[in-house]
Each structure stands twice: as structure tokens, then as C-alpha cells.
Amino acid sequence: WLCLTASVLDGLSNSSSAILFSTSACGFVQYLSDTRQGNIIKATVFDTHGLTLSMACQYESSISYHKEATKIYRAIYGEHHCKVATTYEKLGNVYRSLGQYNEAKEYHEKALIIRKKIVGEEHAEVAASYNNLGNIYLILGQLNEAKEYHKKALAIQRKFLGEEHDHVATTYNNLGSAYRLLKQYNKAKKYNKKAL
Predict the structure, then answer these.
(1) Contacts of 79 (CB under 8 A, 6+ apart)
(2) Which of 79, 95, 110, 173 has a CA positioned 20 to 30 A from the CA of residue 88?
(3) pLDDT (tens digit per residue) in 56-97
(4) Which of 43, 54, 138 is nearest to 94 (CA)?
């Protein structure tokens, strides 16, 4: 319940209280047995604590907790599991926040590979990975790659979420940004208009 409370507080942008609860949970897990179930709880606690630290801009500490969670999840489930993909995604987001874009790209690519293997090409989580990679490529100035990843995300999102979903609007906006940076202003305007 400590992790759940930390997650709720984190979602409410109350990072100091979230850290208090997730830190308490970290203290609690040292008493868990080294069983499969105990290790799953430890990984969940470390992952939650990493997320709360990230929301409080404590990125270096966040990375160490996410890496520990990933290590445990990989030992339990193997490399190709949704929990592993999700912790890779979180690591990619933290590295992006730190401005370490090549590391961010590496982790987002790992998450994408796992997700495609588990759920196939057409899934919301795959679309999220495509969007994450598109954003990294935008930052790196690799605009054609960014555009292609955002187009892939958009195709999946439109199919499963519909035209009116906020994720679709965000991806339209991302595509508009890519086209603007490519100096293709008419296409940029078209996609930015669709985002509205």
C-alpha cells in the first residue's frame, strides 16, 4: 500500500509526499524473503521509488532504482516481458530529462523491441515507444527519422484510439514539429491544425 499511495501522490504532483511513502516502502522491502514473490515486490517498490525520484528531478538516484528494478524483473521474467519494457521506457525518459539523448534512445529502442515481440506491431504501447523515439530523434536533429516514427505511432493510435483522443492530438503536434523543422511549413500547419 505504500507504493500505491506513493503512485497516487506522484500522480497528484505531490512529489515530496510520494518520496516519503516510496522511501518507506524501500525500507520495508529489506525484510522481505528472497523468494520470487518477495523479489517481485522489491522490483515494484524500486520501480515506484525511481519514478517518484524522477518526478522530483532526482534523476541520478532515479536511474539506480530503475536499473535495480530492471535487473530483478529480468531475473524473474527474462528479457522479453512487459515489466522489463516498461522499466526500459522509464530509464529512457529519465535519460532524456538528463539530456543524455543517446542513452535515452538506447532504452526506448529496447522497450520497442520487447513490446513488438510481446504484443505485435499494432498496440498502444508500441505506439508510445514510436512516439518516444520520434521525440528523441527530433531532439537529436534527425528529422526524417523523427517523422517516420511519429507517422508509425499515429497510424496505430488512429486505428485503436480514434481521431479525437489526446494521444492522437499529441502525435499530430509532434509530426507538425518535425515538418516545421524540415521547413515543410504547409505540412506542419496541416498536422498542427489537426492537433487542435
Answers:
(1) 114
(2) 173
(3) 899 999 999 999 999 999 999 999 999 999 999 999 999 999
(4) 54
